Amino acid sequence: MRIVILRSKSDQTGEGAIVAIPRGSDMCAAAAIERWVAAATFTDGAAFREITRHGRIGGRLTTRSVAWIVKKRVYEASLAEGQNAEKAREIAARVSSHSLRAGFATAAAAAGVQAIDIARQTRHRSLSMVQTCVREAELFTRNPVKALGL
């Protein structure tokens, strides 16, 4: 699947970008997007839209909407894992929509993906920004002590 991003924070001139979302399984992002588009009542425009509490599909998601969705899902996941409501709120307060990007970059680095390939997918402007996200993942995977078998 190809996602066209018309404009972003790092692309103020609106040159646009195409990001590939490969199919992995029935639970992958590409399959989820296909199910959403098939179930949606709209035929053009932005794919990611608000859904009102009454189930009505609204306009394009804003950055504020995305941040709220991420925090809400983290809160719900924390409750499902047995945290009390206060602790779940604390955990949710520490995450942001950027956490998804940083987490993706960290997981990709831990899986051995090269920084240049991570940057291409996440659309980081520089490899140093990718390295900021993945530094912790490489503490053990690219450790000279491990390489020497010590």
Task: Report what the structure shows.
The protein is built from eight helices and four strands, in the order E-E-H-E-E-H-H-H-H-H-H-H. It is mostly helical and 150 residues long. Strand 3 and strand 4 form a beta hairpin. The radius of gyration is 18 Å and the shape is globular. The N and C termini lie far apart (44 Å).
Report on the biggest sheet: 2 strands, antiparallel
* Tally of DSSP β-strands: 4
Q: Which sequence of SSEs, written as H and E, runs from N to C?
A: EEHEEHHHHHHH
Structural class: mainly alpha
Keywords:
single chain; two-stranded antiparallel ribbon; 51% helix
List the helices and strands and how they pair.
Blueprint: E1 2-5, E2 17-20, H1 29-39, E3 49-51, E4 57-60, H2 63-80, H3 85-93, H4 97-110, H5 115-122, H6 127-134, H7 138-141, H8 144-147
Antiparallel strand pairs: 1-2, 3-4
Compact summary:
The chain has 150 residues and is mainly alpha-helical. It is 51% helix and 10% strand.
